Amino acid sequence: ERTIEDFPGVPIGMIRAWNLTDPSQAPIKFEVGGAAGQRYAHKTAVTALATADIGGQPVIFSGDNDGDINVWTYDGSRRRVVLSNQLKGHVRGVRVLKFLPSTPLLVSASDDSTMIIWDLRTQAPIQRITSSSRGHTGKVTELVLCVLRGERFVISGGTDRFIKVWRVTMDGSTTPFTNIFEVQHANEISCIGTVQDAAGNSLVVVGDLYGGISMFKYPEFVLVNTILPTDGHAPGAVRCIIEGITPNEFFSSGQNGVVKVWRVSGRLPSAAATAPAASAPRCRTHTAVASWSAA
Question: N or C: at which end does the chain have fewer Cβ atoms within 10 angstroms?
Answer without folding.
Answer: C
